[in-house]
Amino acid sequence: MPASDQLVAQVGASAGGTPVPTSAPKVLSADALAGKAVFEGNCAACHSVGSDKLLGPGLAGVRLRAPGEAWLQKWIRNSSAVIASGDVYAVKIFNDNGKIQMTSFASLTDLQIKQVLDYVDSQNVPVVLMVQ
């Protein structure tokens, strides 16, 4: 049985008999739900939760791309300082995004950053297909 935070869809059939997934509502954990509010208030103007680039990069898979959770916390709180430190990944992100400086979010707590990342992850979880 899938965990409560996994997406589940039923398999339907197209006109040709090929199985196709049907949509299912996403179930958010309490942390992801809290993260959605923080994301919408602070991040959504520049970032998508998916892979689409807005002003900044899409955040799908950001935990997999970044050098770690501690690095993400430093970056989100003050990307200028991380870039100025000569961090190779930070300089690459900065250059790859037109040298546009990310807003610093020094007031966000570790928990709020984790919640935002949980929300982003929840929006990019692959659908688990259940065949009846």
UniProtKB/TrEMBL annotation:
Segments forming a coiled coil: none
InterPro entries assigned to the protein according to its UniProt record, in alphabetical order: Cyt_c-like_dom, Cyt_c-like_dom_sf
Top-rank taxon: Bacteria
Pfam families in the cross-refs: Cytochrom_C
UniProt entry keywords in alphabetical sequence: Heme, Iron, Metal-binding
PROSITE patterns with a match to the protein in the record: CYTC
Residue span(s) of domain Cytochrome c: 30-124
SUPFAM superfamilies referenced in this protein's UniProt entry, alphabetically: Cytochrome c
Name the record gives this protein: C-type cytochrome
The organism of origin for this protein: Fibrivirga algicola
